[in-house]
Amino acid sequence: DTQRKSQGERKRIRHSRSEWEKANEHLHRLYVEKGYTVEEVAFDMAVIHDFEAGISTYQKRLASLGKDKRLRTAKALPEPPISDAEPDIPKAFEIICEQSRRMRAEERRTERVKQKREREKRRLLQLERGNERGRKKERKGKTRDKTMSRISQHWIGPFLQDIYKHQEDLFHSIDAFCKKLFAAGEESWVADARHLRPPLGTPDLSLAWRRLSDQVAGVQLLVEGGLYNQVNFMLGHVLASLRTVVQVRNPGFVVHFWAVCSQFLSIPVRCRGMKSQGNPYLGWFLRRLRENLVSIYGKQPLVDIVDSLLHVLVSSPRDLKPTLGLARWKAIHALGSLIGPTHCIVLNMGVRCAKAWRSKFSTPTTTLELLRQPVLATISGIYDAQYMAEVSLDYLFAVVTEGFNPPNIIAEARELLAWTAEICRKKAQQRTLRYDSVTRAFAFSTRVLAKHFVDPPPDQASRTQRPQHDAEVSFRYLGGAIEVLRWGDLQCRIRAAGFSNLLLAWVKGNPRSPKDATHAGMQAQNIIELKARRREILRTLDKKRIKGTEKRRRDRVWRKDRTQEKNLLVASLAG
């Protein structure tokens, strides 16, 4: 944590003179050449370069550093918002420094190079003694030496320093963008209980950013189902929404942009030669976003953010995921310093960041308790259904795990499903169902309950206490959700198609006794009915034929058609 701590929590960190001499190069570049504030310098040094020190220490070190050459003076942050909570509140989540992981990996590679050189020395010693066997190994070792030199140049080269510089520029652009939104005087955005309110005369596009995030999640479901023509159509909707959200500088960019990038990054790409070039879906999104931003804003912090990510994607695709995770943490850090670290938006961003990268971030219990408070308030008051669905979904998303969930969490999911299913079912009967907060909570709680009953418990004791027909309960949850979502809008129908694929896979994998012929026949008939319903749902999804797949031969197998569609779509995105 680079912010000031209380006297009881403060830990004294000492660095030797040689360590400060190594850090002076970074300090001079950040503070003098780029003009970063002291808080930004402390954040970048701790997160990127694994060099932690207090703010007061940096102020003393930087006070006499380049007074006449500074590009600008540090802008003072606004006063932190007054909160009723206790002053000593933990962070939304904790982080492990990225620099340590990089250095450990580089040390291992350096050790391998060192061992290889020692082996070569032993080979030369054998040659000096006239060992014929050593001469044979010397001839074979030339090829290995060339290969090893190429590997060492690729992994242990100066490109790591360039990646760090792009990350520093990215963090600075995020900080500048947040300050322009919330520290601009009368034109500043204001945070209320759950939302961010724009200044007078500025349209609020937060719902447009949420819609864009839902569309990208739909693209991910379609790719997992192998529906590439539907993906091609859906990407057109994503591009249209992208043109809408960039019209106004909106804090929705800071809130939803990182979730959109994580969704694109998690889309599987199973094409030869594409793994080393990075994710084509994310590259397509960043390039289209930059084109729209440059046409409106020119050179602004928003453009700098996208430029830094594109530089990392092109120069080192393997470092894109760590860069996105650290950038999201920086956005949470900057936004929390302006609207408060306990604001629900900041807490939700922290939870989603921890969910997207579990090995890097963790969510403390205090955050879950803060997200629980709005849920308890809805019990004793009268609130709108959309608000109740939002607060309940935020808490349920934070506490649910990928494994076996305890009974209290399952009870929360069952309670949320009970009243959201009733609302969605009525709208589906009237053909007015839309993918809003209530529908989103209905779909998520359904998936949680279905997965709970189909997965085995972790311990043997609970496995013996479980009823015998849990799989059938899971199938009923998914089947009921499919019958509701299939009559909604496009996003609802995409979720219905995803649930249909999931249900069909679970039914096929459900174990049955080979001696029970009646049960086997009923299951075969059930699979036929599920496939027929899935085909009906897929016919309702709009699609756009990928260029190059219009003329199709009758003797072609459908798997070859699917592979061709996938390859052409990925090639068009990468181009």
UniProtKB/TrEMBL annotation:
Q: Where is this region: Disordered?
A: 106-147
Alphabetical list of InterPro entries matching this protein: Clr5_dom (IPR025676)
According to the entry, every stretch annotated as the Clr5 domain falls at 17-63
**Composition bias type Basic and acidic residues, residue spans:** 106-135
Q: What is this protein called?
A: Clr5 domain-containing protein
This chain's source organism reads: Achaetomium macrosporum
Q: What is this organism's lineage? A: Eukaryota, Fungi, Dikarya, Ascomycota, Pezizomycotina
